């Protein structure tokens, strides 16, 4: 579907009016902590009435997932319309009405690989915020080499019995269901993995939060001890996405999707601020640190251009399919450097770990947290392997 | 405006790539003229061919007989020049001098532009004084003398100065050396008496001059724009030149990288293609990533220049600094990964290293421009 | 003097290595006190044990009851402290404060040194004002008042300030904030009225204070050295502290590197030990090379300090800058090569990253000291 | 043999007197070009009488190779004595009387692996400057992977017939003899190489100089076309050093020796001069370039300490046997960076290629020449491999 400019302009005005009418002022404030984010799910509670009103208005309009088809709970917006909505929400600083791994990860997988019945059931539940999902990928022995995963589902006819351990499961302790990579055939490394969906309330599932060097985190270890997973949740609703033993295709698809998201293109503008802010606060910059900041600004502003170019190219399908790996590599390495410099700029004040003046050690904790950027969602080393192999086509890579 | 090429630009890129790849190839141009110790450092035949392609007037308004295109398009041509290390007066004449001349009077334009468009004339720009680019400080003076001016001083790093039919010279007509105002640009013809070139060959086989002006008498006609008002034109010319040099630098980086990646797929050591060694793979992948980023910055800067954005100045410095850094990396990695043969004159990779060095220095190196980025960002 | 350890030094290194490896181990000290939210950030028991080893008075003359050793020896102890991330008041008390106190009167030395040597006392130094180390500028003022002084101002990043029995405070007794002269050092006892500590826990679980002096009355006895002549003592103290911090930093770097190299030999991915991947091998080899170089610079700086060479100041800054850079590389590579588990609080590698950051900042970071190197080298 | 301090002091005084009497003033000037270096050999000519007199005085005293035993043409100095001689020569800036790959490379190999008769003949010829040697190691297809060399010596009973090609043979066009790695057994990669000595005037030997990116060079390509090499040059003087097919041991020994030499420990003091010199000439330094110079000075001055430590440790045998690889790696990378900065500091003047003001483009040519530092004598990549394997003991390296 294509629009005339006039159509889009009209849509923009309608959207603006709708937002004006439905987005409460409290929902136009920046998100301060995890409480301000609404994740949905069986046990969801709202922080306040405004959060509830805003979520419900969006849900009813299909704006929790504006680009999904209407029959799955979305608003069926075209990409240009969705862009207008994003722009208009950004204009008034509207918060996201619903955050969810269902929206970001499982949804796209189901849209690509799911049966009609799976879509009907799960996508609607996700869109309506009725279910909160978590992702079970990594295992202690399978990080970069994800395909070596060991969590095993034994075939018991009408169900599997799953045993094993996952790690880095974000919000596993708060999720209702999990989408999980489970080995169902030990003979075939790649074609022996099933992308399985099951209830986290099942007997034998337990979780344990992970404390990071930066402090508390949403990450958990998740243990499966003889967890029984039925093979079907009803007519046309198998427990797995895609075929049994072909879950690796789904996982790969989602990994690409994830890298595209992580690689995001922000940074340039934000960054150039470190030097100026420091000058304002210190009066006189250490000249060598100033030079480092200057060289960083060059890299950050150039990367921002690349981000813009990448998004432009993605939109029209011109980007190399492996380009997200390059964006993720460069973007995360840059972000780590940014936070190193923020620590240097902040000096001893930035070292404080829990003082009020530092908002509980925010500079230091953020700095430490960024160290995971180049690990999670594929390490920088894996990204470089992929670039070498798929873009530069180097031998045996 | 999206940051990829539109259809017309993509077509231009194809044309330029084919033309430079054939007519501007290293063996046909750079090595040819270098091995003959050519006093110009480039071939007039190719310049004429470039005129036939319309390249020489690419940035000039159609009213003046040019193509009326923008800096994105000029950058497309320059990137191909860079990839092929093609020596030509394009950057100095068609980008830098042309940028200044478009601000000139009808007379001036009429006098100089047709020759440029036809590929008969070559122009140079005389800005630097001393070994490092520092256009904030201009000591060369032009004093009122009758109806005209008397020019005295010395300029360095005047690329193709001795081959040029006309030099755009930045001189001070009032104020002291470091004043922002009081600059005037002059179009000085090659036969001006009192102008003396000391020509030197540079590391990349290009030619430059130390040019001294010993009371050179100039007509009032030689003034480009307003007397004392040259800083604006100079700044615009520098921006155009920096983005252009950055575009050429991206070409140099890509040329060096492509050559090196090819070599990694051919050379065997320890019973393997060296491109199989993970340490080299990661370095090559990092380089690729940096070159892509530098390229995006150049296209963005060119777009901002074309749309006369206020951010163009900042992004021109970002692009120049980023490209200098990345192209430097590309040629160093190139020579190292080629190993011993990369050190020989027989192989082309060393030529990329030489060109990169000269280009990096032209109109400000990575350090100069990083410092400018800091200043423009308020620290 | 050769740059390797002589037999006595090698023996000391063995002793220190064994002692810190056992008594100062991460589980026994750093995690122990951290997990108990200890207000001191270190254990007094270990401090007492260090006294029994003679470490507390390692730099003090034998006449004062110390071991009369030099900065090479203090560095040997500090490197082991660094390797084990052992929290202790050694650097502030036995190196920094001790360096100043040796210039003090018999009375002052008699008052403070026995407690230090016995491991009963802890000292801190109050130098920085503001977030960045800039001892060239001291605004805290001590004004004549009767027989003594009245101290007013505020100091930041006073490591272990709240635990200290005495603080060495650099204050201005004449001149303006940025003057070289006019500085006096004071030994301020913890019970001085008008001194107020705001204690903060730092990223590495150590404790520091923002300390304000609100008209603190001090006896003339509290002056270390001469009134207005404190800059020399301060500089000597800073040199000692910087070389000491660099020695500790080398230990942190080595600890992180050793842990990481071990991990490369254990962790499997893609059916191989990750230490088999050439890209990681080259990075580890580069890191090794850098750590070795940093270590040599620290030993050299310590020797120059011990021989009272004029080059000690330059090399102290070289050592501090080099170590900060290298230890930063070591901990970043350490966390990255450990992958996900490197991000968990359960593994020790992250503790190295935290300690490195605090140590890097203490007495001037790599940028501050690189700038000093340039100045001392005449540019 | 050990000395009392008194013995050494006496030796120092004697040496000083001898140098005073024998080293002409012209030989106390810095070497300006290759002409100033005396290489010896069959076709050697002296640039002037002073060069001749200085060489002959040293030759007769054994001072062309002061630490070699007297019976092989040396002066038999102990290491402390040799150090005194070096110090006293340095004090008056005395030039080296004789430069030679025979002294630096072949000599140490013969001392370690040669027969008594080989030593008697070849070492004396080398010490007396009667023969000029070149080294035949690398081949076009065998750079880092030297052991894959293909130059083949066919066994013809009393002689070999050598065919193949060498590259990077320094001064091959001026050398009298070559020490050359030749494959004599194709079946065994490592134990199929012979370290062979033969006359460059032999029929079938030809050479071709190599032009570098920095300009003219001493390097040549060297071609062997059915070169006949006798297996013996007389009683106890086989044509090879060590055993036939065991030349790789000799080569490895020499490579270690070479890396130790290349890795040298200079640099710190020289370096710190770039910034100050630039400030003197420009008046005002670009602040970001100043910061780069400052950070370089930190690295260079620290490396100078490492150089000092390394030499101290080598003297007493405390250095790790693979440490020269680390020194070579760090030292050559640093030197390349030094020259990059000298180019930046020099600006457009430094770009000049053959102007008089730049002494024929000295800055630019030196800069380009340093790019080979991390290639010749083992690439940086090979050095890192060796560090990983032999020092860090990483698996499968």
Automatic annotation (TrEMBL), chains A, D:
Tell me which Gene3D superfamilies the record gives. Acyl-CoA dehydrogenase/oxidase, N-terminal domain, Butyryl-CoA Dehydrogenase, subunit A, domain 2, Butyryl-CoA Dehydrogenase, subunit A, domain 3
Q: Where is the Acyl-CoA dehydrogenase/oxidase N-terminal domain?
A: 8-130
Record GO cellular component, one term: plasma membrane
Cofactor field: FAD
The Swiss-Prot or TrEMBL record annotates one GO molecular function as: oxidoreductase activity, acting on the CH-CH group of donors
Q: Which residues form the Acyl-CoA oxidase/dehydrogenase middle domain?
A: 134-227
The family line of this record is: Belongs to the acyl-CoA dehydrogenase family.
Instruction: Quote the protein name from its UniProt record.
Output: Acyl-CoA dehydrogenase
Organism (species): Qipengyuania algicida
Taxonomy, top ranks, is: Bacteria, Pseudomonadati, Pseudomonadota, Alphaproteobacteria, Sphingomonadales
UniProtKB/TrEMBL annotation, chains B, C:
Residues of the Acyl-CoA dehydrogenase/oxidase C-terminal domain = 229-374
Cite the Acyl-CoA oxidase/dehydrogenase middle domain residue spans from the record: 136-202
Q: Where is the Acyl-CoA dehydrogenase/oxidase N-terminal domain?
A: 7-120
Instruction: Quote the InterPro entries the UniProt record gives.
Output: Acyl-CoA_Oxase/DH_mid-dom, Acyl-CoA_Oxase/DH_mid-dom_sf, AcylCo_DH-like_C, AcylCo_DH/oxidase_C, AcylCoA_DH/ox_N, AcylCoA_DH/ox_N_sf, AcylCoA_DH/oxidase_NM_dom_sf
Query: Which cofactors does this protein require?
Result: FAD
Where on the tree of life does the source sit, at the highest rank? Answer: Bacteria
**Keywords (A to Z) from UniProt:** FAD, Flavoprotein, Oxidoreductase
For this protein, the record's Gene3D superfamilies field holds:
Acyl-CoA dehydrogenase/oxidase, N-terminal domain (1.10.540.10), Butyryl-CoA Dehydrogenase, subunit A, domain 2 (2.40.110.10), Butyryl-CoA Dehydrogenase, subunit A, domain 3 (1.20.140.10)
Can you provide one Gene Ontology molecular function annotated for this UniProt record? flavin adenine dinucleotide binding
Give the UniProt family note.
Answer: Belongs to the acyl-CoA dehydrogenase family.
Q: What is this protein called?
A: Acyl-CoA dehydrogenase
Please tell me the species this chain comes from. Qipengyuania algicida
Taxonomic classification: Bacteria, Pseudomonadati, Pseudomonadota, Alphaproteobacteria, Sphingomonadales
């Amino acid at each position: 579907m294509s629009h005339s400019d006039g159509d889009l302009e009209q849509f923009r005005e309608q959207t603006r009016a709708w937002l004006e009418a439905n987005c409460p002022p409290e929902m136009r404030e920046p998100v301060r902590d995890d409480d301000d984010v609404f994740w949905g799910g069986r046990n969801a509670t709202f922080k306040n009435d405004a959060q509830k009103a805003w979520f419900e208005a969006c849900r009813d309009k299909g704006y929790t997932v504006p680009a999904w088809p209407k029959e799955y709970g979305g608003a069926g917006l075209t990409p240009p319309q969705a862009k207008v909505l994003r722009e208009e929400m950004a204009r008034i600083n509207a918060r996201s009405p619903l955050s969810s791994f269902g929206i970001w990860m499982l949804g796209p997988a189901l849209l690509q690989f799911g049966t009609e019945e799976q879509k009907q059931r799960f996508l609607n539940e996700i869109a309506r915020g009725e279910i909160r999902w978590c992702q079970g990928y990594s295992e202690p022995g399978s990080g970069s080499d994800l395909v070596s995963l060991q969590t095993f589902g034994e075939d018991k006819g009408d169900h599997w019995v799953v045993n094993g351990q996952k790690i880095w499961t974000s919000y596993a302790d708060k999720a209702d269901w999990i989408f999980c990579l489970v080995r169902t055939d030990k003979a075939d490394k790649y074609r022996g993995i099933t992308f399985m969906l099951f209830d986290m309330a099942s007997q034998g599932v337990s979780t344990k939060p992970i404390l990071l060097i930066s402090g508390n985190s949403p990450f958990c270890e998740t243990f499966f001890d003889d967890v029984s997973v039925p093979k079907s949740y009803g007519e046309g609703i198998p427990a797995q996405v895609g075929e049994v033993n072909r879950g690796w295709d789904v996982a790969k698809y989602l990994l690409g999707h994830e890298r595209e998201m992580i690689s995001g293109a922000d940074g340039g503008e934000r960054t150039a601020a470190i030097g100026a802010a420091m000058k304002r606060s210190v009066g006189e910059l250490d000249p060598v640190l100033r030079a480092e900041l200057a060289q960083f600004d060059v890299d950050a502003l150039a990367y921002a251009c690349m981000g813009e170019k990448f998004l432009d190219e993605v939109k029209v399908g011109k980007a190399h399919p492996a380009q997200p790996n390059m964006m993720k590599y460069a973007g995360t390495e840059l972000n780590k450097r940014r936070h190193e410099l923020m620590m240097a700029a902040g000096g001893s004040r930035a070292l404080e770990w829990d003082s009020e003046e530092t908002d509980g050690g925010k500079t230091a904790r953020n700095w430490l947290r960024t160290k995971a950027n180049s690990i999670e969602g594929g390490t920088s080393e894996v990204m470089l392997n992929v670039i070498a192999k798929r873009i530069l086509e180097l031998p045996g890579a | 405006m999206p940051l990829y090429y539109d259809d017309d630009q993509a077509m231009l890129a194809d044309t330029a790539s084919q033309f430079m790849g054939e007519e501007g190839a290293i063996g046909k141009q750079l090595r040819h003229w270098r091995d003959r110790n050519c006093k110009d450092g480039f071939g007039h035949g190719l310049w004429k061919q470039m005129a036939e392609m319309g390249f020489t007037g690419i940035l000039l308004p159609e009213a003046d007989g040019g193509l009326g295109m923008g800096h994105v398009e000029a950058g497309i041509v320059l990137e191909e020049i860079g990839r092929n290390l093609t020596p030509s007066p394009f950057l100095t004449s068609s980008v830098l001098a042309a940028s200044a001349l478009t601000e000139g009077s009808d007379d001036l334009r009429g006098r100089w532009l047709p020759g440029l468009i036809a590929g008969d004339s070559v122009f140079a720009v005389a800005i630097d004084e001393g070994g490092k680019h520092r256009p904030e400080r201009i000591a060369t003076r032009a004093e009122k003398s009758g109806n005209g001016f008397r020019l005295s001083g010395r300029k360095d790093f005047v690329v193709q100065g001795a081959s040029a039919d006309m030099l755009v010279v930045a001189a001070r007509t009032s104020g002291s050396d470091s004043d922002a105002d009081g600059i005037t640009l002059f179009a000085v013809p090659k036969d001006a008496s009192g102008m003396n070139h000391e020509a030197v060959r540079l590391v990349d086989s290009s030619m430059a001059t130390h040019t001294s002006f010993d009371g050179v008498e100039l007509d009032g006609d030689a003034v480009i724009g307003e007397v004392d008002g040259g800083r604006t034109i100079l700044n615009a010319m520098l921006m155009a030149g920096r983005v252009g040099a950055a575009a050429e630098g991206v070409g140099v980086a890509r040329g060096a990288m492509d050559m090196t990646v090819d070599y990694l797929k051919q050379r065997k050591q320890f019973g393997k293609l060296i491109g199989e060694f993970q340490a080299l793979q990661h370095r090559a992948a990092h380089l690729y990533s940096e070159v892509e980023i530098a390229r995006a910055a150049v296209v963005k800067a060119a777009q901002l220049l074309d749309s006369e954005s206020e951010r163009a100045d900042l992004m021109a410095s970002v692009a120049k600094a980023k490209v200098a850094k990345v192209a430097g990396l590309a040629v160093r990695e190139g020579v190292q990964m080629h190993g011993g043969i990369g050190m020989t004159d027989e192989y082309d990779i060393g030529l990329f290293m030489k060109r990169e060095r000269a280009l990096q220095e032209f109109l400000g190196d990575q350090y100069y421009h990083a410092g400018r980025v800091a200043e423009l960002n308020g620290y």
